[in-house]
Specification:
The complex is a heterodimer. Chain A is mostly beta strands. Chain A has strands spanning 5-7, 10-13, 19-24, 31-37, 44-50, 53-57, 64-68, 74-78, 87-94, 105-106, 110-114. Chain B has no helices and twelve strands. Chain B is globular, with a radius of gyration of 14 Å. The chains are: A mainly beta, B mainly beta. The A-B interface holds A 4, 31, 33, 35, 41-45, 48, 50, 55-56, 58, 90, 92, 94, 96, 102-109 and B 32, 34, 36, 42-46, 49, 51, 90, 94, 99-108.
Chain lengths: 115, 115
């Protein structure tokens, strides 16, 4: 079965640079979520999109932005990178319309290292 | 606000013995509850969920969890542990009424199953 695809798997950037993470949800899923997992920490919710509109916002810094495109893929744009942004970034998708299973399926993550 | 507590950083169990990984939650409304497993350098893998209905939920790989509303708990169990069950386990909650679709995770419990 198709899963959530994230690219790239690994990314190395320097401070103050920008980064773009991509997420391709499971086909027919209508909601995409972004989470950040710091070293030794639990995943923290950043932002989500339902049918291409922002649905929820968590602890996403102002330096970050995200959007969901017409083909339902999503991109997380990160600017002015800081050392503390080094983390594993997960994308998840779910089918949340009436009758959906309300289960978020996660991608393998993008490991961002800021030097 | 919703929160999850996993009181044990690590659980050690011998192969073939039963295992329990503890989780308690706090939400203002009714909860959706989930367990995910994370293997090294991998994404979060869905194990099971409680939405409504029977308090005992059965999931993947022989795992089950019991929803206890009075104790606000959702402990993960397995009758007979395997060495391959060794991984990081996260409990997550979603308040279906008040917090949108975002998941709040516990701090994770590392399960070590020894031969």
């Amino acid at each position: 079965a198709a899963g959530v695809i994230q690219s790239p798997r690994h990314l190395i950037k320097e401070k103050r640079e920008t980064a773009t993470l991509k997420c391709y949800p499971i086909p027919r899923h209508d909601t995409v979520y972004w989470y950040q997992q710091g070293p030794g920490q639990d995943p923290q919710f950043l932002i989500s999109f339902y049918e291409k509109m922002q649905s929820d916002k968590g602890s996403i810094p102002d330096r970050f932005s995200a959007q969901q495109f017409s083909d339902y893929h999503s991109e997380l744009n990160m600017s002015s990178l800081e050392l503390g942004d080094s983390a594993l970034y997960f994308c998840a998708s779910s089918f949340d319309r009436v009758g959906g299973k309300n289960i978020q399926y996660f991608g393998a993550g993008t490991r961002l290292s800021v030097l | 606000a919703q929160s999850v507590a996993q009181p044990e950083d690590q659980v050690n169990v011998a192969e073939g013995n039963p295992l329990t990984v503890k989780c308690t939650y706090s939400v203002s409304g009714n909860p959706y509850l989930f367990w995910y497993v994370q293997y090294p350098n991998r994404g979060l893998q869905f194990l099971l969920k409680y939405i409504t209905g029977d308090n005992l939920v059965k999931g993947s790989y022989g795992f089950e969890a019991e929803f206890n509303k009075s104790q606000t708990s959702f402990h993960l169990k397995k009758p007979s542990a395997l060495v391959s069950d060794s991984a990081l386990y996260f409990c997550a909650v979603r308040d279906r009424q008040n917090a949108g679709n975002m998941l709040t995770f516990g701090g994770g419990t590392r399960l070590m199953v020894k031969p």
